[in-house]
Design brief:
The complex is a heterotrimer of chains A (547), B (430) and C (229).
Chain A: E1 3-6, E2 12-20, E3 23-28, H1 33-39, E4 63-66, E5 73-74, E6 85-87, H2 91-106, H3 122-130, E7 146-150, E8 153-156, H4 165-173, E9 180-182, E10 189-191, H5 205-210, E11 216-218, E12 231-236, E13 245-251, E14 254-260, H6 273-276, E15 292-295, E16 298-301, H7 304-318, E17 328-332, H8 338-350, E18 356-358, E19 367-368, E20 376-377, H9 385-390, E21 394-395, H10 406-409, E22 414-418, E23 435-440, E24 452-455, E25 464-467, E26 473-476, H11 489-501, H12 509-519, H13 528-531
Parallel strand pairs in A: 2-6, 17-18, 17-22, 18-21, 22-23, 23-24
Antiparallel strand pairs in A: 1-2, 2-3, 4-5, 4-6, 7-8, 8-11, 9-10, 12-13, 13-14, 15-16, 15-24, 19-20, 25-26
Helix pairs in contact in A: 2-3, 7-11, 8-11, 8-12
Chain B: H1 26-31, H2 36-43, H3 46-56, H4 68-73, E1 84-89, H5 98-105, H6 107-121, E2 125-130, H7 135-150, E3 166-171, H8 181-188, E4 212-216, H9 217-229, H10 231-234, E5 245-252, E6 258-263, E7 266-267, H11 268-275, E8 285-289, E9 298-299, H12 300-304, E10 307-308, H13 310-316, E11 324-329, H14 334-348, H15 354-371, H16 377-389, H17 398-412, H18 414-423
Chain C: H1 22-26, H2 28-31, H3 64-73, H4 83-94, H5 99-109, H6 113-122, E1 134-139, H7 142-146, H8 149-160, E2 173-178, E3 190-192, E4 195-197, H9 205-217
Parallel strand pairs in C: 1-2
Antiparallel strand pairs in C: 1-3, 3-4
The chains are: A alpha+beta (547), B alpha/beta (430), C alpha+beta (229).
């Protein structure tokens, strides 16, 4: 009989105990054999099953032997039962998989050398692991060729294993059935409605991710890199405030693509096409590479120690410690991390206080993924708007992230700019300011005359956190190395503040976050450990900051 | 009586009015004691009706032979959601042509069976899923349903009983796989007719997600007779495990092909040589497929002592299926016929399951190659192994159906394959 | 429209020991002509006609056909379930199911065009291309095959002067191989438009083809359904 134990969150969950490949496992009732085996460390080969979709049990690769059952059973739809004895590697199951894999290769072109999926292909992997050494097919293969499905999606029919994940994604998750299986039997093929393609889709890039083989590939990524040459770094999508968990795939210090990273609390297995397609800015070449100090019409590049010393001197000269001294005004970019923005807010406080504002583009509409509750391309088109707000920054400007800076432009105290290159502003921004400090990643014409231009890293080049629209704090890791001597803004500002006060600044992003957490009430109790990578199966739900 | 020929050994119950155009009309049917069984059933408790069907031992006539009464008893009693009865009139198993006769000659018999079934299972709507190609039979049935509606036999108050039962005649659009019960449900719902994974079983989650039972035309056509005369009456024919009469569809090389209604257990030999008038031109019998193209082929020797009931045919090495007896004489080119059957399954595979989608086409390709004289002896081993990989590994049994003729023919007629492969000799080429 | 002007030379239905006319066997005397608007809703989902005059541009779901569409929709708990009957109806009017037809059917039933395409291509009876006035489908499956179906198919191809699956130049015939038509006791079984012809032999093919041609040439060509009897 099923036991009752205390599950996640203290709720009573019925669990069952079964044996998989000789190993006893205890899982909640209703778990499929495939998931139970996965939990026990056994990956049962499969194509049609995907945890984010319905299970049609049609690829027939995940059949396993269950003691007492007359036939092999599909592990993706068969649920666990107490005392069940399951063998994923019995002679029958292995023989059957060999047979099914042979069927898959009958019409497969074996064009791995020119296939983008090569290296991350389930057909390659499974055949390599368990397939026959030589196929017995002697007859001509079916040839379907290539079809442009529209959007970023390209279809190579010959490589398709007919798992229909893509069709089910469009039907069940995007709920926009633009893909279908056409014809039947071995004449069946995935297709759109004749010339109509996926142009109207907003989430179709996911079909490329879930395609287990190289049938659906990204036009953007086509022939750009081999899968095994890419480094994968966990990150957060920077293109809206949803905070989808992603991986940045990089090679030669360039981002080549963004892939979703599964997080059931935020984005499931999915990301939108809007977000997926906007990574090129991380590869921009017009970067600030060394601190530049502007003294009497001359710009001088120098090392950090000298630059920070010059800045400290300059600030000391402004006499801001005295009551009624010059106050600070700052504009920050919500593409920068909580650690960076927290450092700005601490510095502003130390310099006598002042307004910190941010600007960000806003879309007219949310683009919801209707089949996945809580997931949408949000109106806010920056990753850390909520983080900025929680740190006391006020939104200014219009819906394309411009304007709203009159106050700042006319300020006669210290003007601090982080990340925002002020592309809408004229050259010589803030002419009356006593001091203009620009911490940025990119060269800026408005700020070319700033007194101090400090190169800082983007989120992709440093460790840190963003706070998504719902107040969820999520970590990212460095995927690229920053150009020249660019450093994270929190490090630069921390060092400056330390110098001004004669104390030591944070030496790691974790410490920098600690300072943020102690300053923002709704972050109390949060640290890098409690936030984690977004949680494995055993992690408790992340604390959500704010409301 | 059989159509187009009858025989004195027949026991015409379902087929009694074949060839009698008047039996099609409502008046004609009523004059032939039609709708008396429905009247009787409506006065009975639904459970009593189910019990009567159970007692008769009637087994599903669509091929699998599952006990009908037991199937009916799986339907949930709770009336919290609609229940459906589906009549499978998508007759398309090669060699089978009984349902068309039942529909076009005695449509009211089928309607009566449907209504009794609906009453027994608490179904409020009966969908008769007709094969799309059956234009004429479907129209006869549709007209009969219209007449029955008009007469109050179907509708909001079935024969004054207060029971509401609707009947809709549905036409398919050409897909063998829609004869599979869950494929049929998908098709009825306006989807690709791909079979569904079981569980859940139709009695729990069937058509439109509701409890559903699906029965073959011949099964439902037998119901009025069982209800009118009682389960025991039905058992006077056939064997303990296979009670009753059955329509045998005989085709191929016999003098008088057609449908014959005979008690189950009837000797195959007598069917061929007596009832059907023997082989054309008295040629020698070579092989018989006793249950439609999906079952193993019997050699002449195996056919010799075969009794045509569910257990008897299994004993002989095949299956009764829907009792579609395809008779092949000595001139038959077995390799060609097996290839033709395989190509049929390749054409009709829905394409969901990999072993079936790829396997049916592959088997056909290999068989064609052998026929063209480009085969090798290893091909025969490959065929056997490939069809083994296709057996028991898919959602439905279409893929197993290819394996049956291929494996049995290679086992029993290997010489013919070898003659083609080694010497290019083809049987019946002369 | 109902009466059958003369004994259909190609019918050759085997009535065996029964004394029956063709109309009696086919049930034409019983059914009569099914009304275009579908008759009783219970039968409106059936597929009454495959017309000889096939107009791929014909308006869809107008007049009596609109009425039939409405009736079909009343019989199912979901709109999707009406897809097959509605596609049947569209093909009845237009002779084949074109992309435009799929689009329109999808619109009416609130289904995506791609979905409709997926379903339409699953079923063999939906002609994806225009077919001739007489769509000849010859069963060559096992029972008919044993009795010479392949020769009958060849005879049709020869006498209509077409290739398999293609339409003759005059637009009169499309000849195809069909899977089992469930007339196995009456080999060879051939379906021409919506009508079965049974026990067809090679010898009868030229007569039947000539008859259909003569009928096409006939002045009094009816615009109604089923006029080949």
């Amino acid at each position: 009989m099923a036991d009752e134990t205390t599950g996640i969150g203290g709720a009573a969950v019925d669990v069952v105990t079964l044996t998989i490949d000789g190993q006893e496992v205890t899982v909640p009732q209703g778990t499929t054999l495939l998931e139970a085996a996965k939990g026990a460390g056994t990956e049962v080969p499969h194509y049609c099953y995907h945890p984010g979709l319905s299970s049609p049990a049609m690829c027939r690769l995940c059949l396993v032997e269950v003691e007492g059952a007359p036939k092999l059973l599909p592990s993706c739809t068969t649920t666990v039962a107490d005392g069940q004895v399951v063998r994923t590697n019995s002679d029958d199951a292995t023989r059957m998989r060999r047979g099914v894999l042979e069927f898959y290769l009958l019409n497969h072109p074996l064009d791995c050398p020119i296939c983008d999926q090569s290296g991350e292909c389930d057909l390659q992997d499974f055949v390599f692991a368990e397939g026959r050494e030589h196929g017995r097919g002697r007859d001509a293969k079916r040839v379907l060729g290539r079809d442009d499905f529209g959007g970023d999606v390209l279809f190579y029919g010959d490589r398709c294993v007919m798992c229909t994940r893509c069709v089910r994604f469009m039907n069940e998750v995007e709920e926009n059935p633009l893909l279908t299986v056409v014809e039947r039997g071995n004449r069946s093929v995935i297709d759109t409605f004749f010339e109509e393609g996926l142009e109207q889709a907003e989430w179709a890039g996911n079909v490329v991710d879930i395609c287990p083989v190289g049938a659906l590939v990204s036009k953007d990524f086509l022939y750009k890199a081999r899968a095994w040459d890419l480094d994968h770094t966990p990150s957060i999508c920077p293109n809206c405030s949803q905070g989808c968990n992603i991986e940045l795939h990089t090679r030669d210090n360039l981002v080549h693509r963004m892939k979703p990273r599964t997080n059931p609390e935020v984005n499931g297995h999915w990301i939108c096409d809007y977000g997926r397609g906007r990574y090129e800015w991380l590869n921009r070449g017009d970067r600030l590479e060394a601190p530049v100090v502007h003294v009497e019409g001359r710009k001088t590049a120098m090392g950090w120690t000298a630059a920070l010393e010059a800045l400290k001197e300059r600030i000391d000269g402004l006499g801001i410690d005295t009551p009624g001294g010059k106050t600070v005004k700052a504009v920050v970019s919500p593409f920068w991390s909580n650690e960076d923005l927290g450092a700005v807010s601490r510095l502003v406080g130390a310099l006598g206080g002042g307004d910190v504002v941010f600007r960000a583009s806003r879309a007219d509409e949310e683009v919801a993924l209707t089949g996945y509750e809580g997931l949408a391309r949000r109106k806010g088109l920056a990753p850390n708007e909520r983080g900025a707000e929680l740190l006391g920054c006020a939104r200014v400007g219009d819906d394309v992230g411009q304007g709203g800076l009159d106050d700042l432009a006319n300020h006669d105290g210290i003007v601090l700019v982080l990340g925002d290159a002020l592309d809408d502003q004229p050259e010589g921004f803030a002419p009356n300011a006593a001091l203009v400090l620009y911490l940025g990643a990119y060269t800026s014409s408005a700020l070319a005359s700033a007194d101090f231009q400090f190169p800082v890293t983007t989120f992709a080049e440093q460790e840190g956190t963003f706070t998504n629209h719902a107040g969820r704090v999520q970590r990212f890791w460095p995927a690229l190395s920053g150009p020249g001597t660019a450093r994270p803004a929190w490090l630069v500002l921390g060092a400056l503040l330390g110098a001004l006060r004669g104390e030591e600044g944070p030496r790691s992003a974790e410490q920098a976050f600690g300072l943020v957490a102690s300053a923002v009430e709704s972050y109390s109790g949060l640290n890098y450990e409690t936030i984690g990578a977004q949680g494995g199966p055993s992690a408790a739900p992340l604390p959500v900051a704010g409301d | 009586m059989g159509y187009p020929y009858s025989h004195e050994k027949e026991v015409p119950i379902l087929s009694k009015y074949f060839g009698d155009p008047e039996a099609r009309t409502l008046d004609g049917w009523e004059a032939r004691e039609g709708y008396q069984a429905l009247k009787k059933a409506l006065d009975m408790d639904p459970e009593e009706v189910v019990e009567a069907v159970k007692a008769s031992g009637l087994r599903g006539r669509g091929g699998a032979g599952f006990p009908t009464g037991l199937k009916w008893s799986f339907m949930p009693k709770a009336k919290d959601k609609p229940h459906y009865l589906l009549c499978n009139a998508d007759e398309s198993e090669p060699g089978t042509f009984k349902d068309r006769e039942l529909m076009r000659w005695v449509p009211h018999q089928l309607i009566e069976g449907c209504l009794i079934g609906a009453h027994a299972m608490g179904a409020e709507h009966v969908y008769i899923y007709c094969r799309g190609e059956f234009f004429e039979a479907t129209q006869v049935l549709a007209k009969a349903v219209e007449d029955a509606y008009e007469a109050g036999v179907i509708g909001d108050d079935v024969m004054g009983s207060g029971r509401k039962i609707d009947v809709t005649v549905f036409a398919g659009a050409g897909a063998y796989i829609c004869g599979e019960e869950t494929g049929l449900m998908n098709s009825l719902e306006g989807r690709r007719g791909e079979p569904r994974v079981k569980p859940p079983f139709p009695a729990a989650v069937g058509a439109f997600g509701m409890p559903t039972t699906i029965n073959n035309v011949e099964t439902l056509a037998a119901i009025p007779h069982i209800v009118a005369n009682g389960g025991e009456w039905y058992r006077q024919w056939g064997s303990e495990k296979s009670p009753g009469t059955k329509l045998f569809c005989v085709s191929g090389h016999v003098r008088r092909p057609g449908n014959y209604e005979l008690p189950l257990g009837f000797p195959l030999k007598d069917l061929i040589y007596d009832v059907c008038g023997g082989m054309i031109e008295d040629r020698a019998l070579k092989a018989v497929i006793p249950g439609g193209s999906s079952v193993p082929i019997l050699s002449a020797e195996e056919a010799e002592g075969c009794a045509l009931c569910y257990e008897g045919v299994i004993e002989a090495g095949s299956m009764l299926g829907c009792a579609s007896v395809i008779v092949m004489d000595e001139t038959t080119d077995i390799v060609h016929q097996v290839m033709r059957m395989a190509s049929f399954y390749a054409h009709e595979s829905c394409g969901q399951c990999t072993p079936c989608r790829e396997g049916t086409a592959w088997v056909t390709t290999i068989l064609k190659r052998i026929e063209d004289g480009r085969g090798t002896e290893e091909d025969l081993d490959t065929l056997v192994e490939v069809t083994e990989q296709m057996t028991g590994t898919t959602i439905c049994v279409l893929s197993d159906s290819v394996a049956a003729p291929v494996q049995s023919s290679i086992a029993k007629f290997r010489d013919e394959y070898l003659a083609l492969i080694r010497r290019g000799e083809r049987v019946g080429a002369a | 429209m109902t009466e059958i002007p003369f004994k259909n030379p190609g019918w050759a239905g085997n009535v065996g020991e029964y004394d029956l006319t063709e109309e009696q066997v086919r049930g034409i005397d019983f059914v009569g002509v099914r009304p275009l608007e579908g008759g009783h809703p219970a039968g409106s989902s059936t597929y009454p006609y495959m017309m000889e005059d096939k107009d791929p541009e014909a308006p869809l779901f107008e007049g009596p056909y609109e009425e039939r569409l409405e009736k079909i929709l009343t019989r199912y708990p979901t709109k999707r379930a009406a897809l097959l009957p509605v596609l049947n109806l569209a093909q009845e009017v237009r002779g084949h199911v074109s992309p435009q037809t799929m689009d329109r059917v999808g619109e009416i039933l609130e289904l995506s065009s791609a979905y409709v395409r997926g379903v339409a291509t699953f079923y063999t009876m939906y002609n994806k291309r225009p077919v001739g006035r007489h769509l000849v489908q010859v069963c060559t499956n096992i029972s008919c095959n044993l009795c010479g179906a392949e020769d009958v198919l060849k005879a049709f191809l020869a006498h209509t002067n077409t290739e398999m699956g293609a339409t003759s130049l005059d637009g009169a015939f499309t000849v195809m191989e069909a899977e089992c038509l469930a007339g196995c006791g009456f080999p060879t079984c051939v379906q021409i438009n919506s009508r079965y012809y049974e026990n067809l032999t090679v010898e009868e093919v030229p007569r039947l083809v000539a008859h259909l041609r003569a009928q096409d040439a006939g002045a009094a060509r009816s615009t109604g359904p089923e006029d080949e009897g």
